């Protein structure tokens, strides 16, 4: 099973974990490191390194912002540990979809790619969804 580490500014990581637990229950190998106001980057790095050290096998960091401190620190740690990937721009839809695929994916690199696709696919609007449904209905009617 691929280990997952959520991290980001404020309490976004624990918020996503809380939502996942509410909907799907507690999850194994899911770790959270928040970066609240007032925490220094040295403390964040130490906590992320400790959590990463406790993970066995392939690991994926989910971070909130590309270029932010959690992303930069996770990236530095990942480059020093083979089989570790970093994703920026996490969202609940992406994370929920990938949570149940991690047992079927062999490598963190493959997991990263599929997570990015899931994240992009989960971003939509009501108008776009209704338009797609209408096109499908018209295609069925035209048969």
Topology:
Blueprint: E1 3-9, H1 12-24, E2 30-35, H2 41-54, E3 59-63, H3 69-79, E4 84-88, H4 92-99, H5 108-121, H6 126-141
Parallel strand pairs: 1-2, 1-3, 3-4
Helix pairs in contact: 2-3, 4-5
Structure in words:
This protein has 143 residues and is an alpha/beta fold. It has a single domain (3-141), classed as Phosphotransferase system, mannose-type IIA component (Rossmann fold, 3-Layer(aba) Sandwich). Helices cover 53% and strands 16% of the residues. It contains six helices and four strands. The protein has helices at residues 12-24, 41-54, 69-79, 92-99, 108-121, 126-141; strands spanning 3-9, 30-35, 59-63, 84-88. A four-stranded parallel sheet has the order 2-1-3-4, with helices on both faces. α2 packs across α3 (69-79) and α4 (92-99) packs across α5. The longest helix has 16 residues, at 126-141. It is elongated, with a radius of gyration of 17 Å. The N and C termini lie far apart (45 Å).
